[in-house]
Amino acid sequence: MSMTGYENNGRLPRFPEPLWRGTAELTQFPKLTEDIQTDAVVVGGGMTGITSAYLLAKEGLKVTLLEAGVILNGTTGHTTAKATAQHSLIYDELIGNFGEEKARLYYQANHDALQFMKDLIKDGKIDCDCSEEDAYIYTNASDKMQSLIDEFKAYEQLGIVGEYVSTIPIPVEAKAAIIMKKQMRFHPLKYLKHLVNEFTKLGGKIYEHTTVVDIEEGDSPVITTRDNHKVSCSQMIIASHIPFYDLKGFYFSRMYPSRSYAMAVKTEKEFPGGMYINAESPSRSLRSADLNGEKVIIFGGDSHDTGKEENTHQYYEELEKFADKTFGVREIPYRWSAQDPITLDKIPFVGHYSSSTSNIYVATGYRKWGMTNSTNAALLLTDLIVGRDNPYKDVFTPQRFHAYPDVKKFLSINAGVAKDLVKGKLEQPSTQPENLGLDEGAAVTVDGKRAGAYRDHDGKLHIVDTTCTHMGCELNWNNGERTWDCPCHGSRFSHKGEVLEGPAELPLKKLSEE
To answer: Are 465 and 459 in contact (CB under 8 A)?
Structure first.
């Protein structure tokens, strides 16, 4: 048994890769190599950033999009791509915490975003494997039955077109389910490829491998890249998943990161249609997709706080067992995982970055329901920038604060961060780098200090400083993805120390690469 915690059984792909990136040809864009001036800058090349850039260009603005890596390779490229306003069990909770009006506005914002996507796909004749589907929340747990009933009552109260049923068409045990009608599944990268093409036709510029490291605020914000190039603008959107610039918003302390897992499976049984998620833990999500003319089922689930689990490969194994039990596994072409920040009150932060920055905006905290939430964010931010009124701005404003449940959750999360910080500093690993075999990674001791080591398939040993470059927490090894993950705020680094996900901006220090 290797120290990655598993042996490949021949069906699970050895390396993670999402179905979407494996089945979409994307244009490559250059790195920024000069100082430029533009009307609006969008930082982040995911669904929020690309949709925002496209909408602003349609408004006649000169728009530049900057991406630290390559576009559509973050959470957007690793989603299960359910475009739906059914965000698990949420509406009864929103009514209880914030009242019927704000719950209805949250629903309407996501419903409008879904309709915007449907119209865009139809009018643009976008070939993105789009299919209108009903969305189900089901349960087989007795203690979740009342929650399901309360959620359906919330549907009725808010005027959501839905249905309560006692059976569902997929082969899982279920006592009951609620349905939200006429939602959508699609191929997110094929959809966004169309928006990228339209954006560049409108004169928009995209620069990849261009990391933003600083912002000078003011009437005309100036962005500085890692290569010390300057971008001047009038308006700016931070759409980088977790805000990289956080001197005033403290978003890292007002959200917590969660990872979940997915795989695309060629099955023995045929999928009946629909999109499904259960109400209990562990979470199980199902939807179909197209793979080179053949149907596959995307199985997802098993959420956990980022950086708190080392043997993450076990979650893929559990999903494989679930897939085998329900539909039968013939082949697993793709497996992948995704990470999303969750706000304290479960509503995304979309709007002005801070109360003192009138021309810098942020969008984050989609709670794993990013397809409609990101589209809503782009529509909302576009309205704010061009000066149009938007009925949803007060629901999503980052400046909101509610005494309950925010305070209790805030204290709990940040007490946990403090505990993880101290725990990591006190740990003295017993493993030595030279003891690692091929494809093994672990926290190790080097010259009496904690470090991180990984020996790749060619036998090369990569040793890095495991102190997170964001706020100094000690990183933990993730064997399913072969990454170093931060248990405090969710930053992730490759085995070579490169930043994969923020809020960290700087790579890890390399101690050795032999």
So the answer is: no
